[in-house]
C-alpha cells in the first residue's frame, strides 16, 4: 500500500490526527486506519511502521470523509460478533485506544482513568451513507430489520389490542399508503413457529419471543412489519397446548387465516400427522362457509377497492425432519404436492379454499436449521399477485375488525361438536329454541343487523310458552298473512266504552283489514272457539330474550285501575294548595299561645334552613319556636308547659337544658290548658287519618298486582329502572311500559303511543327504547 497521500486526500478528515506519533509529532492529519495496529496513521507513520517485517502484512484502510474508527476493546455489541463492530465514540489520549460508549463506561468510569483526557468523535450522516454504500445486499437487509419489534394484536379472549386503524399502522411502523401482504404461521405448540419467523424474516433477531420453558411463550396473536419483504408477519398460539378457552382460541386462528395472503404450517414431526390435514381441511370448509360471505360484505360495507376474498391464502407446509427422509424422496417421479393431495383425499378433506398448497422440507443432520429454502419459497409466493394482491394496512385492520365483531362471544361447551377443528358452533348463533331445542342457523351477532333468529326445523307447541300465533283466516285465503291477537276492546272504541263492551261481550279479535272478526261472548250460549271459525294457528320458535307469545292481552283490569289512578291523582293535585292553606290555618287556631304562628315561620330557628312549600314545620313544645325535623327530633316531657308525663318533641337546645326549670307563670299554664287539650286532640286526629290512608294503600297494592297483564314484570321483581338503573324508593315511583312490560322511572317512560299488539289501541305509556322502534308496536 502506498504511503503517499494525494493532494485531494488532504483535508478530508481535519478532525482526525495521527494516533501513532512514530515518525511525526502527532500533528499530521490521519489518512490510513490499521485495524491490527488499532490506530489512525498519517502517511509517514504508516510507511515507517509497516516497513518492519512483523507488521508488513497488516490490513490498512484509506480513510474517507467523515470517517469514525472502530472501538478497540470490544468486537461487537455483545462482545463476540466480529461482523458487527461498534464505532468509537471517544479516544483516550493516555491509553491511546478508541472506545465506544459502553466500553468507556466499563473501563474509564472509576479510578484514575476517569481523569484521562479524551477526544470525541462525531458520526456524520455522510459517514452513515458511506457505510451503507459499502455494505453488501445481505448486510443492508439485516440493518433494515434491526429496529423491528412485535406487538400484541389480539389477546387470548379474541379482543383486538389496537385502538383503531391509525394505532395499527403506528405499531406496525409502516407508511399508511404502503402496500403489503400478510404472512402468518400455524402449527402445534413447541414446534418452533416463533423461531422460524425470526430466522426467516429477521435474520435470527428475537422479534417474536421464544422460550425453552414448557409453557407456551406465545399467547394470543402477535404481529410485526418486515420492511425487507414489505409484509405483516403474524405469529399465532400453538395447537394442542394446555390452555383455557380452547374453542375461542381455535376460532381466533381462523380469523388470522382469513386475513392472511400466505400461511406457513410448521411441523417438526418426522412424519406428517393426520392433524395437519384435518386442520387445513376443516379450516378450508369453515372459511368457505362462514368467512367468504362476511369478507365480501366487509368490502362492500367499507367501500374497499381491493377484494378481500377471491380465494383463500396460499399454504406452505414447512416440514423439518431429523431421522426420516423428506416427503417424496422415495418417489422421485411424483412431486410432494401430489402426495399431499392424496392424503387429503384419503381423509375425506378437501382444501378448496386455499389458492395453492406447497411443500418445503429440510432435513437437519446437525443444528442449526436451514431456513434458506423456506425463505426462497416465501419470496417466490409473495411476488405472485395473480390471486392475492398487496393492500394498505388499513384494509387489513378493517377486515380483522369486521371478523372479530361478527364472530365473537363465548362458545358453550355442551353444544360443541368435537369431530372437527372448526365446528359450526364456533361461527353460528348460540341461541336455542326454548320450546323444541333447535339451534339458530344464522351467523353470530346477526341481531346487530336486524336479522331475526331462524331455525332449520319446525317448532312444536309448548303449553308453558304458548307459542301459537293467530293469523286471520279470511286474509290468508286472499293470499295475505295478517297476525291478530285477542284483546280487551276494538281500536274504534273509546277506553271507557271498550271496558263496558268487554264486561258485556268479552274479549275481541280484530283484523286490520277485516275489522272485528270475533267476540268471545257475542251470544248467550253456543259461542265457538276462534280457531274453528275465524283464525288459523302457526307454531313458532321461542328464542331467549324475546317477548314470547303471550296472546292473553286482556288488560281490562289494568285499564280500569289506570283510570281510577288518573282521577285520584287529578283530585289530589288540584286540592293540594287549598289543603295546605287550610291545614296551616287550623293548626294556628288550636296552637298554644306561646307557639309562633306558622305564617311567621319562614326558616328553621336553629340551622336557618328556609322552608319550602312541601317542607313540614315542627314546633318545640318547650320554647314554641319553629324548627326543621332534624333540629327537633328529640323528645322529653315538658311539665312546665303542661306536656307530660309522655315525651313530646323539643328542639336540641331545650333538650340539652332539660334540668333548667322554665319560669312559666302558673296562670299562663292554666290559661293554656284548654288550648293544649285542643292541640292533643288535633294530633290524635291526624295520626288516625294517617293510619286510615295507610290501611287503604295496602289493599291497593294487592289490587295492582292482581290487575297487571301477564307480560308485565311483577312489581316486587323491579328494584331499579330498566333504562337508567336508578333504584326505586318512596320518592321515585315505578311505571310499566305497555309495550315491553319492564319497569321504568317516569323520566324514562313519559312517552305516549298506541300498542296494538298488546291490546292498547289508544296512546299509553311506553319506554324510551320502545318509542324509538319504527312501525306499529
UniProtKB/TrEMBL annotation:
Under the subunit heading, UniProt states: Interacts with RAB18 (in GTP-bound form). Interacts with BSCL2 in a RAB18-dependent manner. Interacts with ZW10.
Q: Give the organism, scientific name.
A: Vombatus ursinus
Q: Which keywords, in A-to-Z order, does the entry hold?
A: Endoplasmic reticulum, Golgi apparatus, Lipid droplet, Metal-binding, Mitochondrion, Repeat, Zinc, Zinc-finger
Supply the name of the protein. Answer: Zinc finger FYVE domain-containing protein 1
Task: List GO BP terms, alphabetically.
Answer: cellular response to starvation; host-mediated activation of viral genome replication; lipid droplet formation; macroautophagy
- FYVE-type domain: from which residue to which, for each copy? 598-659, 715-775
Gene3D superfamilies the UniProt entry points to: P-loop containing nucleotide triphosphate hydrolases, Zinc/RING finger domain, C3HC4 (zinc finger)
May I have one GO cellular component term?
endoplasmic reticulum membrane
- Lineage top rank: taxon: Eukaryota
Where in the cell?
Endoplasmic reticulum; Golgi apparatus, Golgi stack; Lipid droplet; Mitochondrion
Main localisation, per the record?
endoplasmic reticulum
Q: Name one GO molecular function term.
A: 1-phosphatidylinositol binding
UniProt entry tagged with the keyword Endoplasmic reticulum: yes
Annotated SUPFAM superfamilies: FYVE/PHD zinc finger (SSF57903), Growth factor receptor domain (SSF57184), P-loop containing nucleoside triphosphate hydrolases (SSF52540)
Q: Which InterPro entries match?
A: Growth_fac_rcpt_cys_sf, P-loop_NTPase, ZFYV1, ZFYVE1_first_BBox1, ZFYVE1_second_BBox1, Znf_FYVE, Znf_FYVE-rel, Znf_FYVE_PHD
What sections of the sequence does the record tag as coiled-coil?
Answer: none
Amino acid at each position: 500500500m502506498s504511503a503517499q497521500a494525494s493532494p485531494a486526500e488532504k483535508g478530508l478528515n481535519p478532525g482526525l490526527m495521527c494516533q501513532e506519533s512514530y515518525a511525526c509529532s502527532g500533528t499530521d492529519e490521519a489518512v490510513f486506519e490499521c485495524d491490527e495496529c488499532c490506530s489512525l496513521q498519517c502517511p509517514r507513520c504508516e510507511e515507517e511502521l509497516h516497513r518492519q517485517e512483523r507488521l508488513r502484512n497488516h490490513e490498512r484502510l484509506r480513510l474517507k470523509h467523515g470517517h469514525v474508527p472502530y472501538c478497540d476493546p470490544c468486537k461487537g455489541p455483545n462482545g463476540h460478533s466480529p461482523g458487527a463492530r461498534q464505532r468509537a465514540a471517544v479516544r483516550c489520549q493516555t491509553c491511546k485506544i478508541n472506545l465506544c460508549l459502553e466500553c468507556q463506561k466499563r473501563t474509564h468510569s472509576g479510578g484514575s482513568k476517569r481523569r484521562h483526557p479524551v477526544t470525541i468523535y462525531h458520526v456524520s450522516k455522510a459517514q452513515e451513507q458511506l457505510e451503507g454504500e459499502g455494505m453488501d445486499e445481505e448486510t443492508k437487509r439485516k440493518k433494515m430489520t434491526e429496529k423491528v419489534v412485535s406487538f400484541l394484536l389480539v389477546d387470548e379472549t379474541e379482543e383486538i389490542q389496537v385502538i383503531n386503524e391509525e394505532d395499527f399502522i403506528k405499531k406496525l411502523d409502516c407508511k399508511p399508503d404502503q402496500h403489503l401482504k400478510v404472512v402468518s404461521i400455524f402449527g402445534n405448540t413447541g414446534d418452533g413457529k416463533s423461531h422460524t419467523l425470526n430466522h426467516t424474516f429477521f435474520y435470527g433477531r428475537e422479534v417474536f419471543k421464544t422460550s425453552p420453558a414448557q409453557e407456551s411463550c406465545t399467547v394470543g396473536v402477535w404481529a410485526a412489519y418486515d420492511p425487507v419483504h414489505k409484509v405483516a408477519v403474524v405469529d399465532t398460539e400453538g395447537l394442542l397446548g394446555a390452555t383455557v378457552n380452547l374453542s375461542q382460541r381455535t376460532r381466533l386462528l381462523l380469523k388470522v387465516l382469513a386475513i392472511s395472503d400466505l400461511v406457513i404450517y410448521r411441523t417438526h414431526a418426522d412424519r406428517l400427522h393426520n392433524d395437519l390435514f384435518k386442520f387445513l381441511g376443516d379450516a378450508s370448509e369453515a372459511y368457505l362457509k362462514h368467512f367468504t360471505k362476511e369478507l365480501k360484505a366487509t368490502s362492500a360495507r367499507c367501500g374497499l377497492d381491493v377484494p378481500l376474498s377471491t380465494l383463500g391464502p396460499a399454504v406452505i407446509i414447512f416440514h423439518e425432519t431429523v431421522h426420516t427422509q423428506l416427503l417424496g424422496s422415495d418417489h422421485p417421479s411424483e412431486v410432494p404436492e401430489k402426495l399431499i393431495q392424496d392424503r387429503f383425499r384419503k381423509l375425506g378433506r378437501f382444501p378448496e379454499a386455499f389458492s395453492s398448497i406447497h411443500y418445503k422440507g429440510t432435513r437437519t443432520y446437525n443444528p442449526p436449521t436451514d431456513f434458506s429454502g423456506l425463505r426462497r419459497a416465501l419470496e417466490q409466493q409473495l411476488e405472485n399477485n395473480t390471486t392475492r394482491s398487496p393492500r394498505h394496512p388499513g384494509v387489513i385492520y378493517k377486515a380483522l375488525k369486521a371478523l372479530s365483531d361478527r364472530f365473537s362471544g363465548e362458545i358453550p361447551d355442551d353444544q360443541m361438536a368435537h369431530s372437527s377443528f372448526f365446528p359450526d358452533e364456533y361461527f353460528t348463533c348460540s341461541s336455542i329454541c326454548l320450546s323444541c331445542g333447535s339451534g339458530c342457523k344464522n351467523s353470530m351477532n346477526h341481531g346487530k343487523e336486524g336479522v331475526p333468529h331462524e331455525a332449520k326445523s319446525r317448532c312444536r307447541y309448548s303449553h308453558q310458552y304458548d307459542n301459537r300465533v293467530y293469523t286471520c283466516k279470511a286474509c290468508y285465503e286472499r293470499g295475505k298473512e295478517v297476525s291478530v291477537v285477542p284483546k280487551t276492546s276494538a281500536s274504534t272504541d273509546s277506553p271507557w266504552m271498550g271496558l263496558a263492551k268487554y264486561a258485556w261481550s268479552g274479549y275481541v279479535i280484530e283484523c286490520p283489514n277485516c275489522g272485528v272478526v270475533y267476540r268471545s261472548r257475542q251470544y248467550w250460549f253456543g259461542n265457538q272457539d276462534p280457531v274453528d271459525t275465524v283464525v288459523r294457528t302457526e307454531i313458532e320458535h321461542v328464542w331467549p330474550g324475546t317477548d314470547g307469545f303471550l296472546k292473553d292481552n286482556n288488560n281490562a283490569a289494568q285499564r280500569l285501575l289506570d283510570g281510577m289512578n288518573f282521577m285520584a291523582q287529578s283530585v289530589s293535585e288540584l286540592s293540594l294548595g287549598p289543603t295546605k292553606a287550610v291545614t296551616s290555618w287550623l293548626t294556628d287556631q288550636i296552637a298554644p299561645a306561646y307557639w309562633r304562628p306558622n305564617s311567621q315561620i319562614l326558616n328553621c330557628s336553629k340551622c336557618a334552613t328556609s322552608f319550602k312549600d312541601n317542607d313540614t314545620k315542627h314546633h318545640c313544645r318547650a320554647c314554641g319556636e319553629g324548627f326543621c325535623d332534624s333540629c327537633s327530633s328529640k323528645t322529653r316531657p315538658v311539665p312546665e308547659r303542661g306536656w307530660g308525663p309522655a315525651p313530646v318533641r323539643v328542639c336540641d337546645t331545650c333538650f340539652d337544658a332539660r334540668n333548667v326549670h322554665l319560669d312559666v307563670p302558673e296562670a299562663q299554664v292554666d290559661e293554656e290548658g284548654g288550648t293544649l287539650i285542643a292541640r292533643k286532640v288535633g294530633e290524635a286526629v291526624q295520626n288516625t287519618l294517617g293510619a286510615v290512608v295507610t290501611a287503604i294503600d295496602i289493599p291497593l297494592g294487592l289490587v295492582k298486582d292482581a290487575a297487571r297483564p301477564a307480560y308485565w314484570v311483577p312489581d316486587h321483581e323491579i328494584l331499579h329502572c330498566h333504562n337508567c338503573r336508578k333504584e326505586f324508593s318512596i320518592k321515585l315511583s315505578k311505571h310499566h311500559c305497555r309495550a315491553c312490560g319492564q319497569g321504568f322511572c317516569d323520566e324514562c317512560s313519559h312517552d305516549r303511543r298506541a300498542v296494538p299488539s298488546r291490546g292498547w289501541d289508544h296512546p299509553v305509556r311506553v319506554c324510551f327504547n320502545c318509542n324509538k322502534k319504527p312501525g306499529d308496536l
